[in-house]
Design goal:
Blueprint: H1 7-24, H2 33-42, H3 50-66, H4 90-100, E1 112-117, H5 123-132, E2 137-139, H6 146-154, E3 161-166, H7 171-188, E4 194-200, E5 214-215, H8 223-230, E6 233-234, H9 242-256, H10 259-281
Length: 282
């Protein structure tokens, strides 16, 4: 690594390079600054505060500008270039049309399933699995707004509604999931079959010595109830290895999915795609 940066920054960048190769690379995940920050905070290389986050942010910016860290090694979910879909010509569009058709297979399932994640930093790990299984994914970004909760209640269509939930095991993380479930259940009305299947982080993770944890935040108004239920340690989702999180999401989806109905839908989709190709060729 070239000169011109402090020893402290050099240590952070070196560790982030190791994390990029060993933790995020195997799962094919491009992490956010916050994911690096959490890993470094757990290892006590930076303090877990806004100041610590800024330290990581600056170190990554300097390292990328100097060529010490790959430019594409960090993702920015908040600054996205939005464009209109276009094609080079009509043949290219027809090629897209041939491959783009996808049957709504979950409409043929006995239950409606969605995946909800507490924060945007988790999208890089969870979204590929949700896409693979064609499951709707909701990024909560903390406590859900009233509008988002109302829209969720409107998506209940008479079938059992399953929410596969991924969030921190800390005072706010526990409360926001339970509050959202109670609100949607009340809005949907009596007789609604609603299940919140929390798969990460769960209480059992507290007894796993391989999962890093942090002391509970005593300033959170919900801490007293959390201490009574879970003890004095918390675990953020970023503490889980990305591959472990992905596997939990995959197993949960398969657990709630009717395999026979899914296979029938796949066969129907294949037939309809073949029909579409024939029509486009006419």
């Amino acid at each position: 690594m070239a000169r011109g940066i402090s020893n402290a920054t050099r240590v952070l960048v070196s560790r982030m390079c190791e994390l990029w190769e060993s933790r995020f690379g195997p799962a094919r995940i491009v992490p956010t600054v916050r994911q690096f920050f959490y890993c470094l905070a757990v290892e006590e290389l930076v303090e877990k505060s806004d100041k610590g986050y800024s330290t990581v942010q600056r170190a990554l910016a300097r390292a990328r500008e100097r060529g010490d860290f790959p430019w594409d090694g960090v993702r920015d979910n908040l600054r996205e270039l939005r464009t209109v879909s276009t094609w080079q010509d009509l043949p290219e569009y027809l090629g897209t049309a041939r491959s783009a058709y996808r049957l709504d297979k979950w409409a043929l399932q006995p239950r409606r399933v969605e995946v909800w994640i507490e924060k945007d930093t988790l999208a890089a790990a969870v979204e590929p699995i949700a896409r693979e299984y064609e499951v709707p994914l909701l990024v909560d970004r903390g406590y859900l707004s009233v509008s988002a909760k109302k829209e969720a209640s409107r998506r209940i269509d008479g079938r059992p509604f399953v929410i596969i939930y991924v969030g921190d095991l800390d005072p706010s993380g526990v409360n926001m999931a339970e509050e959202a479930e109670a609100w949607v259940r009340a809005a949907a009305g009596a007789g609604t079959e609603l299940e919140l299947d929390r798969i990460a982080v769960v209480e059992a993770d507290l007894s796993n010595p391989a999962v890093p944890r942090l002391p509970v935040n005593g300033n959170d108004s919900r801490t007293k109830d959390y201490l009574r239920r879970f003890g004095n340690e918390v675990i953020e989702v970023e503490a889980l290895a990305p591959e472990e999180l992905q596997e939990r999401v995959r197993r949960a989806i398969e657990r709630h999915r009717d395999a026979e109905a899914w296979d029938q839908a796949v066969a129907r989709e294949s037939d309809e795609r073949a029909d579409l190709r024939r029509r486009l060729a006419e």
